[in-house]
Amino acid sequence: MKIIVDTDLCEANAVCMGICPEVFRVEEDDTLTILLQEVPENLRSQIEQAVRLCPRQALRSEN
Asked: Which of the four pLDDT bands, split at 50, 70 and 90, describes residue 36?
């Protein structure tokens, strides 16, 4: 699974980081960094929740 961030929409609210800090990190300059290129299957439910709860709908996942 891969995570795609629409950087035009992302406001770095850190909701995703709070849900899955293994994959998401908000930097000091308020940008979002994806820490893993390929997300392991055991994190699927957390990723789906992060995508669903993103305030700006800036995240999506691809299998």
From this structure: very high
pLDDT of residue 63: 87
Euclidean distance between CA atoms 63 and 55, whole angstroms: 22
d(CA 42, CA 44): 6
| Model confidence band, residue 22 (pLDDT cutoffs 50, 70, 90) | very high
Q: Which residue has the tokens 């909701």?
A: 15
Give the C-alpha distances (Å, rounded to integers) separating 1 from 9, 27, 43: 21, 23, 10
Domains of the chain and any CATH numbers = 2-62 (3.30.70.20)
